[in-house]
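Before a colleague's protein record goes any further, I have to sign it off. My question to you is simply how this chain folds and whether the tokens agree. I do not need a full report, just your reasoning and any doubts. This is what I was given:
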Amino acid sequence: MEPMAQRFEPVLKTLNDAGVRYLVVGGVAVVLHGHLRTTGDLDLVVELSPTNLDRALDALEGSGFQPRPPVPLRSFADPETRRSWVKEKNLRVFSLWHPDFPGFEVDLFVEEPFDFDEVWRRRVEVELEGSTTFIVALDDLVALKKASGRAQDLEDIEALQELARGVAGDD
């Protein structure tokens, strides 16, 4: 197993074991859809219902993850706090780090960037070495990347559309 997967797969297995509803987005989702590229973080959209969020934070905290910003991890569970981060700090993701994995972060979206239930229904399940993970469908990933519009996202869109054309051409 290559180093990136050694870091993100245990996180996903921990979330699965805790029964957390999450979707992998970002660079890891691009890789799991079939376009190899490097990434140093795991971007997750966690369903922000209180029960699901409690399970996610318990699992991440129990695995040793700590918030990058100097705030308690549990502050992420408060909807008002998250809204103020978006409004006052333009915060889009809440970054967690682990002392045993320098250079690797788990980024949790502060707001669900889409209707979670709708995108969850279209999710793609990917078998990893020790678990199954849930990634956003290709079209949903492209839509997220378009909304972001960063240079890396534009490159990812091109690669993902090339993959989609290849899949469509296989029919």
